[in-house]
Amino acid sequence: MDDTQTLHAMGLDDAYRVERTLADGPSGVTELVTLDGTGPFVRKKIPLRLARRRLWSTLADCTSPRLPRVEATYELPDRFVVVYDYVPGVTLERHVTGKGRLDASEATRIAVQLCEAVGELHAHGIIHRDVTPANIIIATDGVHLIDFGIAREHVGAATGDATARARDTTTLGTWGYAAPEQYGFAPTDARTDVYAIGRVLGFMLTGVSPSDATAYGRSLADVSAVPPALRAIVAKACAFEPSARMQSVRELRDALERAEHGTEDKAPSATVPVATSTSASAGDGTVGASAPTGAVRRAPASRR
To answer: Per the record, which residues fall in region Disordered (predicted)?
Structure first.
């Protein structure tokens, strides 16, 4: 980057007005900013060693209204900066905490919209790897997926090149929502996000975090509260082996829409998997902030 580019980036950086700091940690600083009366926007200042320029460039090509629009990217001498739309609303985590378990119709509608967001990412070769209630915003126009702190580019799904087939070497994700392969059992791919969406659906239907495996499993098995069709969808989406899950979010979305319209396939009841018991370190789970490398964020144990 030459001096002219540096000066331009510094001038642009100074033009933003910081309203408040949302998060500050090893992975960078996240701020709420405005620009000449427009916004608000989220500005992330990422250390250069952690910058993933190609990933953010790809995210800028995503057009789904379920994803925040990337407004600008630029580079300072010591930071890579990304500015994207701020999405006002409440996290799904808080929504369920305040309301309790959601009825089947609302839970299905949210899950379908979540599939739309994740499907757009997958179409551009990105897997999110941290689809959790804390990273889902319920806004006036529906569901929005945020926080791409541990997202990665991926070529292929069930098969692909050597990069796609390689196991993840660092444990990342949120306890209770991270798929088994995120603990090094297998490569992560599109089916990793399918697993997480299944966990989110289970959380909505029970009001209990999957990190509390006993309470979650008991609540999900409550036939008076959770429709059998949705319970079967959760079980299939959250299968331990990726090959036993829906193989794409399109397939998961189709199953949800069939259940919503009462045309689901008849299938024998399945045992609902509980949270992976692999130990994990805690993180702060701040909305909009990235988990530190090597961390699995612990979700709260239960929801009322």
So the answer is: 257-304
